[in-house]
Amino acid sequence: MANITIPMPVLFPEPSISINGSESDSDGRSESVTPKLTLPFTENEIEPQPSSLYSNQPAQLKKPLLKCSVCGDRATGVHYQTPSCNGCKTFFRRAVIAQRKFVCRNGGKCALDKHGRCGCRACRFQKCVDAGMNVNAIQHSPSVNLTLSIARKRVFRHQHQKGYESESADESQPSTSESNGISPMIFGEHDELFKTINIVLRIDEKHTRLRLSTWNPYFEQDGLVNFLSSDSAYGNATRYPLVSQWPARPNHYVEKRLMKAEEIKFWYFCDLALSVEYLKTFEFYSQLHMADKVSLFCLDFGKTNDFKTIACL
Amino acid sequence: MANITIPMPVLFPEPSISINGSESDSDGRSESVTPKLTLPFTENEIEPQPSSLYSNQPAQLKKPLLKCSVCGDRATGVHYQTPSCNGCKTFFRRAVIAQRKFVCRNGGKCALDKHGRCGCRACRFQKCVDAGMNVNAIQHSPSVNLTLSIARKRVFRHQHQKGYESESADESQPSTSESNGISPMIFGEHDELFKTINIVLRIDEKHTRLRLSTWNPYFEQDGLVNFLSSDSAYGNATRYPLVSQWPARPNHYVEKRLMKAEEIKFWYFCDLALSVEYLKTFEFYSQLHMADKVSLFCLDFGKTNDFKTIACL
DNA sequence: CCCGAGAACATGTTCTGTT
DNA sequence: CAACAGAACATGTTCTCGG
Ligand SMILES: [Zn+2]
Ligand SMILES: [Zn+2]
Ligand SMILES: [Zn+2]
Ligand SMILES: [Zn+2]
To answer: What CATH number corresponds to the domain at position A95?
Structure first.
C-alpha cells in the first residue's frame, strides 16, 4: 500500500435544504404523499408566476434604481461594497475564491456594457476591483460568527424537516429525537465532532433526496471507465424531482422506449451507484498504485458484501 | 448497525479530461512545471480571442442559417432531430433525463420567443416535443456502442496524460505501464471490473486536479454542520486553476487579509477535506441511525489514523 | 472535416439565512 | 423587514469524441 494520509473533517460552505412549503401558489394538488418540500417533490411542478424564472418581465422596482458600477446593468444592491448586478457580484466572488487570474489580450481596454461584460474576464474583474469591490467582503468562512447555538439550531431544524422519508417505515423509531439530538454532552464546545455529525446528517439528506428522486443510474450506464470520472451525482441531487411513490406513474412526455423502464427504479443499481458516488470524493486514493487501488476497491465493497466475488482479485 | 445494502458500481455519463495543449494562443509561459493541461494550469489564464466566451460577437456563419423550431433563436444545428438552438437542446435533454414534468399555469398558451423562452418551462418543453424533438435521440446510455477497444483506447490515453503529478515523486515506479494497463486477461470482456478500474483512474485525476489547484479548504471552514452538506468539491474540481508550485506566488488582486494565508496550502486540512469529500457520496449512510453513523465515521478515519482519538467515541 | 450528443465550463437568477 | 452573502438552481456556450 502506498502511503496514505488520512485527513480530518474540515469545514465548508453552507448548504441549506429547501424544505418549506411556502411556495407562491397553493394549487390544490392532492397527490399521494404530498410532502412539504419546496422544490419538485410532487410529480408535477407548477410553473411559478411569470415575472420570475428567467422570464423577461421588466419587474417594476421602487428602489433608487442603482446601476451596476461594472457593467451598467441594473444593480440588485450593494455587493462587496459596490453597487452591482447579480452577474458581476457572482462573477467577482467566484473569481476571488478560485484565485483566478485572467489576462486580457487587448491591454485591458475592453469595453464593458451589459452585453459585452462577458467578453473579457480580465477586464471585467479589473473593473470590479476599480469600481470598489472589496475582496475582504467575501466571507471565505461563512462561519466566522457561527456560534454553537446557531449550529444547534440548524441541526434542530434539520431534524424536524426530514419528514419526507416516507419509505423505510422505521419512523416508528422512538429514539430519533434523542439519538439524533447531537448531544452537547458528547461534543461540548468541541465544534469538530459536532460539525462532523452534522455533516453526516447533511449527507443523509443529500442521499435520501437523490435516492427517492427520478435519478435512475440504470440509464446512465457508460462503463465504469466513465462512471467515476463524472461529477458526483450528489452535486445534482436537487435537480432530480422527488418521486412520491415507486414505480412512478408514466410520464406523458416520455415516449415508448423510455417509458417501459423509467417507470421503475432499479434499487439495486441505484444503491450501488450511490455507493460509488461516495467513493468518488476520497482523497488518498490518488497516491495509491493501481494494484493497491484495485485491492482497496474490492476490499471496500467486499467488506460489506459479495463484491469481492465479482472482482475476483 | 442498521441494515446496509451495498451497491455495485454502475456506469455513468462521460467526463472527458481536457488535456490537450492546443489552446488558441501560444504565449511563451515558462513557469516551473508547465504541464499540458488546457484549462487553467498556469497561474494566468489568457482570455481567448473575442468572438467566443459569451461575448456578444455576431460570429458570421456561412451555414443555411437555421432557426430554432422552439424559440426562433439561431439554431446551432439539428438536435434530437429538430433544428434548435443550444439552449433548447440542452433544456430538452435535461428535462427528459430528469423526468421533469412542468405544469403551465396559463393553459399552455405562453409565448415563446428568444427572450421569453424561459418564462414557462412547461410550454417550452411542450413546444420542443411538438417541434419534433425525439426523446429516443437522447442517449441515456452513451456507451451503447462503447466497445472494449474504445474503452481501452481511453484508458491508454489517460495513462499518458497524467504527466502533471509532479509531486509524489514515485514516477520512478517501473510497473506503472503494466500494472496500470487494465490487463484484459483479468477483465476480459467483463466490462464490469474493467469499468471499475477506470473509475478509479478517473477519481485519481479529479483528486489530483483538486489537490494541486487553488482549492484551499482551510478558507471554507464553516463547521462540519455544513461541510458535508455542500456539494462535493470534486464537482468543481476543474473550476480551480492549478498551481504549478506551492506556495503560490501572491495574487495581485488579492488584498492583505487573504494574501498572507492564501499563498500557502494547508496540506493537512486539504487532504483531510478531500477525504471527507469522498464520504459525501456514499449511500447506505442514510439508513443508519445517528449512533451508527458516528461510529462508522470514527471507524472510517480511525481505521487509518488517529481520528478515533479525537472523536473519542 | 462535419455532425450532433453530451460533458465540462461559465453565467445569471432565486432562495435561504443571518445580521 | 430590509440588505446582502452565498448556496442552490437554471440556463447557455464551448469542447471532446465517435461516426
Ligand atoms: Zn454588472
Ligand atoms: Zn480585456
Ligand atoms: Zn431555441
Ligand atoms: Zn406556459
So the answer is: 3.30.50.10
